[in-house]
Specification:
3 domains, five-stranded parallel sheet, Polyamine Oxidase, Chain A, domain 2, 19 helices, FAD/NAD(P)-binding domain, alpha/beta, 35% helix
């Protein structure tokens, strides 16, 4: 009998855990995961502070992939719903969820809630629906002059679009017009990335915003007025317009902690606080990884297959003797980091006609504060909040490791965040009851720096038959968690089928029509 083969997986986030699970379900290959931190789930983890849970970044569990939706439901069943059965993925695949035998969140923690998505833009100290609705309320808030400018600007972009989208600014203007871009997209996007939109690749828009445009948003608005679809099957809806999603009762980390438990039960291994800092190869195959523990002791681990979710910059650094041009591109890759400030409030200053606001998150468009987005954890899941009479907020800041924001002392940063939220009229400082700050490095792989030369890294990595880059940081691609999972699934399928090319992995979450159009105009 041949010795059991081993897959070394770097990282215990959604991509790495999905790869391990799929290997155990479909092969005889033993997965061994090395995670450099002490937590499961990567940026999809759930943090806890004094009994209050924090979703870092806000993670909707929704996918247009039937496979992913079923995968989640198999791990964590969906809550019991009143009324008729609810479709959560396509009827054609005969995959229909019935509430008949579903659990109730009152009786178990292992359950997915069905949540209604609501997010708005906060601008000019007013709330605007996201996506924008062309109704009387919106027009009144914008004012007559700005509304007319938006209309004519959109018409101009529709009639005379930029033939070649050189950057993200061109991408936005072609779909929304210059005036709407300047009003609702420019400031927030530049908060996220820290550079002007005209320095960011248009590929980011093609991946994250895909086919969304002002025209589609308007069409979707009218479509929903006449549609009777009450389920979660929203495949024909642009991702930014999705109205319902699933959510683990105790936050996104609960899903991945459960997956980790299953992996261990099935014979996989997960090692925490183990950093991969060296990768050795012979010819076109990776042979081993060097692991460093918290005490600095090193161990060499042999393997047959290797999955990497570590940042590409670190991966290339670990691959000794990589070509000079590849090292150069890797060194120039840029990441944006992320800070969440949790605030426990007695109340908010703003209300919806006297009631608590029901948004999951709010985009802070105002230019005079650095705050990018505001999460209201009560509205993601009431079970994230220990005291149901309190309001549990997450203030999100986008920054870069070493910059002025990142370097602020914890107490200074929290006071700064409270001051900003009070400045724009959302809270009063006297109503704050508790606070915490959480920093996350390399949360957003950026589409500038040396990103335009990223193909050089892909070409080099693809020469290693048994190395698979998966996930957000693993591929330096701003994937959602479902796309990260799909890259892991595709990689495992390649191993099973003996497929050497990695193109099916790289094609996950790409806008084919955009790239076809781009190639035609190049």
């Amino acid at each position: 009998m041949s010795e059991q083969k081993t897959a070394i997986i770097i990282g215990a986030g959604p991509a790495g855990l999905t790869a391990a699970y799929e290997l155990l379900e479909n092969t005889d290959i033993k997965p061994v995961i090395f995670e450099k931190s002490d937590t499961i789930g990567g940026i999809c983890k759930t943090a806890t502070h004094n009994g209050y849970k924090i979703d870092i970044g806000g993670h909707r569990f929704f996918s247009k992939s039937d496979r992913v939706m079923k995968w989640w439901a198999d791990i964590m069943p969906i809550e019991k719903l009143e009324g008729e059965q609810k479709v959560f993925y396509r009827k054609e695949s005969r995959s229909v969820f019935s509430s008949k035998d579903a659990p109730s969140p009152e009786n178990t923690d292992l359950v997915m809630l069905v949540r209604k998505r609501k997010s708005r833009i906060y601008f000019l100290r007013k709330f605007f629906d996201y996506p924008l609705k062309l109704n009387f309320t919106t027009l009144k808030k914008l004012g007559t002059v700005r509304t007319i400018k938006i209309g004519f600007s959109y018409l101009r972009s529709s009639i005379f679009p930029k033939k070649t989208e050189e950057n993200l600014e061109d991408f936005f203007i072609n779909r929304f017009g210059r005036e709407l871009y300047l009003t609702f997209f420019k400031s927030y996007t530049e908060k996220v990335w820290g550079v002007p939109c005209n320095q960011i690749s248009a590929e980011w828009g093609a991946q994250r915003i895909k086919g969304l445009s002002l025209k589609k948003a308007v069409m979707d608005f009218f479509k929903k007025r006449i549609s009777d679809n009450k389920g979660l099957d929203q495949k024909e809806t642009e991702d930014s317009l999705i109205e319902k999603f699933l959510y683990p009762k105790l936050g996104p980390g609960q899903m991945w902690e459960r997956v980790a438990e299953i992996i261990k039960e099935k014979g996989g291994q997960i090692y925490m606080n183990k950093k991969v800092d060296e990768i050795k190869y012979e010819g076109n195959k990776i042979r081993s990884v060097g692991i460093k523990d918290a005490q600095g002791e090193k161990t060499e681990i042999l393997g047959d297959y290797f999955f990497s979710t570590m940042p590409v910059k670190e991966l290339i650094s670990s691959l000794k003797d990589a070509p000079k041009n590849v090292q150069e591109v890797a060194d120039g890759l840029v990441y944006r980091d992320f800070v969440t400030v949790g605030l426990l409030m007695d109340r908010l200053t703003v209300t919806d006609n006297g009631n608590n606001i029901s948004d999951n998150w709010i985009y802070i468009q105002d230019r005079d504060v650095k705050l990018g987005r505001l999460q209201i954890f009560n509205n993601w899941s009431p079970y994230l909040v220990r005291d149901k009479e309190k309001i549990w907020l997450g203030l999100e800041y986008f920054c870069s490791e070493g910059d002025e924001l990142w370097e602020k002392h914890d107490t200074e940063f929290i006071d700064f965040a409270i001051g900003e939220l009070e400045k724009i009229g959302i809270i009063a400082k006297k109503d704050v009851r508790d606070s915490v700050i959480i920093r996350m490095k390399k949360t957003y792989p950026a589409y500038f720096g040396t990103y335009e030369r990223f193909q050089e890294i892909k070409d080099y990595i693809n020469t290693f038959e048994n190395l698979f880059l998966i996930g957000r940081n693993g591929m330096h691609r701003y994937n959602n968690q479902d796309h990260s999972m799909l890259t892991a699934m595709a990689a495992v399928e390649n191993i099973i089928s003996g497929i050497k090319t990695k193109e099916n992995i790289w094609s996950v979450n790409t806008e084919e029509q955009y790239h076809e159009k781009k190639n035609q105009t190049a």
